[in-house]
Amino acid sequence: MRKFMMVISIGVIGLLSCQKSVQLDSPTSLKTKAKANLASVGITYYIDPSGNDDSTGMSTTTAWRTLAKINASVFGPGDRILFKSGGVWNDTLHMKNSGTAEAPIIIDKYGGDVRPIINGGGKRNGSNALYLNKVSYFEVNNLELTNTIPSGTSCAATGIRVIGGSSAGTAISNVSIRNCYVHDVNGAIDGQTNYNKSSGGIILDGKIYGALVQNCHVANCSVEGIRTTGDRAMAARSKDIIIDNNLIEYIYGDGIVMSGVTGGSKITHNTVYKACMNTGSENYAGIWTIGSLNTLVAYNEVYGMTGGGANDGVAFDADGYDTNSVTDGDIFEYNYSHDNNGGFMLFMNQSKNIKVRYNVSVNDIGTTRLKKLFLIEKTTYDSREIYNNVFYIKNPTASLFNVMNGVSSGKPYATFSNNIFYTTSTISSLSTQADNGLKFNNNCLFPSSTFTSLNWGTTVRNNNFYEDPVFVNPIGGNGLDAAKGYDVGSGSAALNAGVFISNNGGEDFAGNALPLGNPDVGAFQHAVVANAGSSLADAYVRNGTYASTNYGTTADLVIKSDATSYARKAYAKFDIAMITKPKVSSAKLKMYVAGVNTAPQRTINIYTTSTTSWLENSINWNNAPMDTVLVGKISVSGIGLQTIDVTSAINRLLTGTDRKVSFLFLNTAAASSTNDMSFSSREATANKPTLELLY
């Protein structure tokens, strides 16, 4: 999405843009530390299907052959266990030893680009193709794993399982799983013998302080894709779990679950496709958190889900149903969900202080089951903030908000601000419960005929509007870039129509900076570029002998506190007639210091003047306006750009009819022959005065 900044400049228009970083770094430096220490710590072992377990295993020509040999061996810090590229092993791998921060144990491949394959075989209930049993400082890289249960057998199965500490025991730490392909894990599903929801692709089980699952592909697994599991009591929870940049597809149950974490955990940059493939009553979702504290869910794409149980199948879920499972402070932002049958979001009754912001949801109401956008349990927590999202609805909707039982004395509390709700179909009802705890502030609801005819019940409504948001290219599609088609056009009523929300994350869906004042409605923030026109002017004036002299054509705006005939002050004027909004969200006056005298520092006061009729070619000390209001101060010690926040001054001006703003720059310090300084004027060849307005 392009970002436009209104730059009102004396002879110049500036265009500012910014980009967001879309990839998180690893939470540990294990690999870097390992490389630095491998020369002096640890042994490298090689495993080849053509090897010999009676060999030393310490070279490619003396490689071991079987996983049983590895399972029976003891490894120490810095050891590397390398499987031959393209090799196939039909067994399970169990690791039980830990490395150190300086020398982790590493599993990887050698001799080519093709991943080694471990086929677990699903030979018993609860089997794991790779089992990491209470290991710390351990890395797994570049493996392909399956765990396919024989036909006619019903067992729980997992591709990779990490066992952490017990609830009252010591946590394991610093485990990473990178670039692995886990697939065809066909564990028992709901209704079958040995069904276990804590089984599937990659499972992190127990108390873990620091784990990374990154760049993995998990496909054709049941029950789960990637999840944490274990005791959710606060003392037993994990922390610093990062699930990043993985592809999870064709999953019977949940795509990603973050369960039982106390902080520092993130679900970022993942793609979840065709999770929730079940057709039964068991509930699943795309990405969800439970018993979670301050988890970040960001930059994910969730799409193509058709199942999920009778009530669920939503793209995202802030869960929690009892004291231990409370989810508190999680943030869902910059995600793109589309073409999901079960809706966009679920709030369970024990989720609180949840922020859902700057997401794009397209066609997330399907054609079967509840046909809802949100599923909300009744709660006593009035602390869910849903703001600056886009909800584009294509199918007939039974209820935007389906209310379920939760806390009997509660309500389905949620506050919706600055969102766009847009439908091309029908909506039968706003909510299944008219007595709700919903608040709607500054939302764009289109079309008007659909939304004004709804029974809003007890919903508290303020400053919502019903104009077409004018999307730029709302055709949908896959990938986060497709979501940018739900940006709005330059003439949209959504521009600058939002209510300011503090601690808003600082940027929009596309990475553009958010204003300090009122934002746009929707997931994308804008600014406008316009030329200020010919009425701009600047000049400095001088007192005493020079009081009637005009200096409007010089390249400098000189400011000095000095004796009579040597004192100077400067003026600059801007035309803001192109601003049709009642207020701007940000106004920055940018002045370039082109020169300073030898005094180490001087303070320049900036004022607005009520009189704006002065002309550049006739202003002088005698007729210069002094009907002033102080708007700011700057300290000048050297050459360079100075930026002054004049938002309040511009918004005060916009309440009247005058659309010119005049600034005075004055040094009020004691007289000095060395405190003079100069700004570049509009006659300068570069660095002209600029007023940037964001709205």
TrEMBL record:
Keywords for this protein: Secreted, Signal
Subcellular location: Secreted
Gene Ontology cellular component annotations, sorted alphabetically: extracellular region
Family matches, as PROSITE patterns: PROKAR_LIPOPROTEIN
Carbohydrate-binding module family domain residues: 536-693
Pfam families: Beta_helix, CBM96
Domain of life: Bacteria
Protein name according to UniProt: Right-handed parallel beta-helix repeat-containing protein
